């Protein structure tokens, strides 16, 4: 068996990084599937800050906010289907380890 696997990932972490997310995503495409969990990014205000930065950069957002802890393959399949159906050309994960795994 022969195959090639490439997974370019840019992980940014730290205070104030949400303000730059619009510029970062806009360099890669103009329509993003924003992958999050169900609660914490909303409760902390991080989702709102990311949405503001993305909108300011002219990026269209499709929100996929149903990633659970240790996401099931059915969740991943649902996200992939949403990506195909909406024509997003960038995937952005905002949240913890499960969200990052799902976004990858």
Largest sheet: 3 strands, parallel
Portion in beta strands? 15-25%
> Could you say which overall geometry the principal axes of the C-alpha atoms support?
globular
Number of strands: 3
Class per helix and strand makeup: alpha/beta
DSSP helical segment count: 5
**Poorly predicted spans:** none
| Topology as a string of helices (H) and strands (E) | HEHHEHEH
Report the mean per-residue pLDDT as an integer: 94
List the helices and strands and how they pair.
Elements: H1 21-26, E1 31-37, H2 40-43, H3 46-56, E2 60-67, H4 73-86, E3 90-93, H5 97-103
Parallel strand pairs: 1-2, 1-3
Detailed description of the structure:
It is built from 5 helices and 3 strands; from the N terminus they run H-E-H-H-E-H-E-H. The chain is globular and about 45 Å long. It is α/β, with parallel strands linked by helices and 104 residues long. The chain has a 3-stranded parallel sheet, with helices on both faces. Helices cover 40% and strands 18% of the residues.
């Amino acid at each position: 068996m022969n195959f090639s696997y490439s997974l370019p990932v840019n992980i940014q972490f730290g205070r104030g990084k949400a303000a730059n997310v619009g510029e970062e995503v806009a360099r890669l495409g103009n329509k993003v599937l924003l992958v999050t969990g169900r609660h914490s990014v909303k409760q902390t205000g991080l989702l709102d800050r990311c949405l503001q930065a993305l909108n300011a950069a002219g990026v269209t957002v499709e929100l996929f906010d149903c990633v659970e802890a240790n996401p099931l393959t059915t969740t991943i399949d649902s996200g992939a289907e949403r990506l195909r159906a909406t024509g997003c050309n960038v995937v952005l994960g905002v949240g913890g380890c499960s969200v990052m795994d799902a976004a990858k």
